[in-house]
Amino acid sequence: MNITKFILKNKSIKIIADDNTVVNNQTLEGLIKKNLLVLQENNIKRNDNVAIVLNNSIDFVVSFFSIVNVAVSAPLNPNYTEAEFSFYFKDLKPKVVICNFEDSHPAVICAKKNNIRVIKIEEFIFKEALNKKSKLSKKYKSDSKDIALILHTSGTTSRPKMVPLTHKNLINSSQNIGKTLNLSKKDKNIVLMPSFHIHGIVASILAPLVSGGKIVILPKFNALSFFKSLEKHSPTWFTGVPTMLQAILDRSSRNTKVISASKLKFIRSSSASLPTSILVEIEKTFKVPVIESYGMTEASHQMTSNLLPPKKRKVGSVGVPVGIKVKTVNDNFKKLKVNDVGEILIKGKSILKKYIASKEINKNSFVKGWFRTGDLGYFDKEGYLYISGRIKEIINRGGEKISPKEVDEVFTSYKKVNKAVSFAVKHAKLGEDIAIAIVLNNNFKCTANELKEYAKNKLANFKIPKQIFFLKEIPLGATGKIQRIGLAKKLGLEK
To answer: Tell me: the pLDDT tens digits for 72-82?
Structure first.
């Protein structure tokens, strides 16, 4: 069974827009049936990739369930530059792009340059099938083993890699989250996370619908209007990254009446580490527990999580494994004892089988069926996991994952730059931010603003380093190699 069929089993589900437009089970099923014929008429076949470039909306949810019922969905950030879309389209080779943007949008421009058909929403969701008598092919629908979703994750030694997740992966992860949070048809959450993010797709959209609940789709996260939405829609929970929660907390003192009248049962945090002080303050302000979880794209989001009261929660911990196996190992991949720090490995039905990448990348990513997260951590005597660091060079900027290699390539492509090494620096609100060390070519002069302006057309804004350091040479490690991890300390930026 695919994820679309699995969702439609729940007659109680509702997808609600911020303007109170409602799509219930019956309406959703009708739209999907119509859309499948439109896709078929456009020669979309089983296992074809379909890119979705949409902001959070009912249109996105309907498009997603329509596409994955027959093909592979590949949601992309609408804020990407033309250069970034060019990379992702080259990687994905989508048959069509679903969007609702003008022809001047980078995604549309890039699609046309690459001879990829663009289907606007008004031609998709709201379009009748050309032949009303046409029937859907019986061989057309996806099953549990088929790929449902492809997302890119950042790599340490290469540009972003494609993560293929099956219907089985998504269903199991959604069920694990539902079990963790005791979700039911009585629950309603507000979708704050972007729908092109694994956190947004699985935790915010799929998990509540798999549990038979309701979701409210906000166009995008806005801390200024959050409390209006909280008052208007009366959700029982929501999930977000620490930067969102901090922004909400910063405005809570002006919205005490809304908070006291809310029906919230808990607040969930994931995708980045939530500072303990913020967690404590949120719980004090909203008078509900904050459930911190640990997830990644390759695991279809959640791997471990703290649990709802009366079960134990541990501040500073990312909780216990739910529905999958997790262990820590030493350099020889031997399982470690309690409190010993080692690499975190995962195994389970929600974990990808392999990247769409080279044999070498997959060989290095798996050990005897266990996936290597690249994170370091330890278990306490009660089985609660604590994250203590990372092996991989990925920069986690408030939940947005950045491949430093991708950033390096952009800056070294500038004629004045000889070497460029991006790296993580600590940030009070984001957890980590990106900085870059630059060595210029001989006899060239350059400013930080000049480099940022150059990068604007090649990188999404969140990937552009706010701090640029001009050096004569990049500091090297003991082996003579550039060591990205720890570079901030070497440059005197951290103690």
So the answer is: 999 999 999 99
Q: Which residues, other chains included, contact 6 with Cβ-Cβ below 8 Å and sequence gap of 6+?
A: 167, 171, 210
pLDDT > 70 in the chain, percent = 94
pLDDT at 156: 44
328 part of a folded domain = no
358 CB burial (10 A radius; 0-12, 13-18, 19+):
exposed
Query: In the structure encoding, which two tokens stand for residue 66, read together?
Result: 């329509």
Range of the domain at 412: 395-490
Asked, for residue 114, whether it belongs to a domain, the answer is yes
- Which of 27, 89, 104, 95 minimizes the C-alpha distance to 61? 27
Asked whether residue 8 is assigned to any structural domain, the reply reads yes
pLDDT digits (tens, 9 = 90+) for 197-229: 999 999 999 999 999 999 999 999 999 999 999
Q: Give the CATH number for residue 453.
A: 3.30.300.30
**Apex 241 CA angle, 220 and 422, nearest 5:** 100
Q: Say how many domains are in the chain.
A: 2
Residues 190 and 72 reside in one and the same domain:
yes
Indicate the pairing of strand 266-269 with strand 290-296: parallel
